[in-house]
Design goal:
6 strands, 363 residues, 6-stranded antiparallel sheet, alpha+beta, 59% helix, rod-shaped
Length: 363
């Protein structure tokens, strides 16, 4: 179908489109058809002048506009007929008695030119198939052999004048191609007015939908930014939560390792840890800063030393006094490992909690 030449309607140049679609090429322009129309007007003027240039008929003829063309681009059947004579083609009225007496089947013809009021269009056979090349259509329309006669009869009922084109049409690519293959048309072309109206309705419908979406969901950029900010805050909170959980698990594992060591310090912390929950000790350990740990460690060592001195004085033991360093197995003033510092802090925290629990029980 792409190889078929088809001019679509522009203004009122349907006579030009009709001729070019018939000949399958850009053979005629408005200027050339206007020249033919002017020649016909001059011939008619000369014939009228034969009756006398001073006659009433001649003066009336000069005052009338041309009957072969007008400013809109319309051209008469005489213009079309003279244009086809250049190619050795002749027009015969299809419904004339002379042609009807011939009894020729329309299928055996090559082409038709149809006219209704001021519109012209071509129906032509290309290869072995018929096509309606009306310039008001969006493209060529395939016509079956069985439908051709009915189609022409329908045009006659609608008031169309149909002309049979006699003679050899110029060769064209579409005719040569369709001699070898037959085409099928899945979707018939629409009238240009229908296509324009449909496109306009689709644009209006799309515009209405866009306006409705804009009213229901106005976009000023803030919605997307707020949503992105909210997602970022959620991701940040989740990340912090995961970090806190990892820190808690690390401290808990370290506390368990220290509590499983075999010295008397772990036995003391183990006996206390059985009376309180593991989560409470972990949370309290996390809340202690390094400076507070050092202060509590120093206070703890001083308290232990005072208790040992009181025990020594009460029992009047003559043994070597036990120092806080011996009791704890470390030097409070010396270097301590991180594990020892953490264990000491836990011991102090656990002891404080135990004293607090004992106080609450007495109350």
């Amino acid at each position: 179908m792409e190889s078929i030449f088809h001019e679509r309607q522009e203004g009122s140049l349907c006579a030009q489109h009709c001729l070019n679609n018939l000949l399958q090429g850009e053979y005629f322009s408005p200027v050339e058809l206007s020249f033919i129309a002017q020649q016909l007007d001059e011939e008619e003027r000369m014939r009228m002048a034969e009756g006398g240039m001073s006659s009433e008929e001649y003066r009336t003829f000069l005052q009338q506009p041309s009957g072969n063309m007008d400013d809109s681009g319309f051209f008469s059947i005489q213009v079309i007929s003279n244009a086809l004579k250049v190619w050795g083609l002749e027009l015969i009225l299809f419904n004339s008695p002379e042609y009807q007496r011939l009894g020729i089947d329309p299928i055996n013809e090559k082409s038709f030119i149809c006219n209704y009021k001021e519109h012209w269009f071509t129906v032509r056979k290309l290869g072995k198939q018929w096509f309606n090349l009306n310039s008001l259509l969006t493209g060529p329309e395939l016509i079956s052999d069985t439908y051709l006669a009915l189609f022409l009869a329908q045009l006659q009922q609608e008031g169309y004048s149909i002309f049979v084109v006699k003679g050899d049409l110029p060769d064209c690519e579409a005719d040569q191609l369709l001699q070898m293959v037959r085409v099928q048309q899945i979707q018939r072309p629409k009238l240009i007015g229908e296509e324009t109206a449909q496109s306009r309705d689709q644009r209006l419908q799309k515009s209405s939908m866009d306006q409705a979406v804009e009213v229901n969901h106005p976009f000023d950029g803030t919605g997307m930014l707020d949503e992105d900010e909210e997602n970022f805050q959620k991701a940040l909170a989740l990340s912090r939560q995961e970090i806190d959980m990892e820190d808690e698990e690390a401290d808990l594992r370290r506390a368990i390792q220290l509590s499983m060591q075999g010295d008397h310090r772990n036995e003391f912390s183990g006996s206390v840890s059985r009376n309180i929950s593991q989560s409470t000790s972990t949370s309290l350990t996390e809340s202690l800063s390094s400076e507070e740990l050092r202060r509590r460690r120093q206070a703890y060592f001083e308290k232990q030393q005072q208790q040992l001195q009181q025990q020594e004085h009460a029992s009047n033991l003559h043994d070597k006094p036990t120092t806080s360093s011996d009791a704890l197995g470390m030097d409070p003033g010396g270097d301590m490992s991180e594990d020892d510092m953490l264990q000491a802090a836990m011991n102090m925290s656990l002891e404080s909690i135990r004293n607090h629990l004992n106080t609450e029980e007495k109350k």
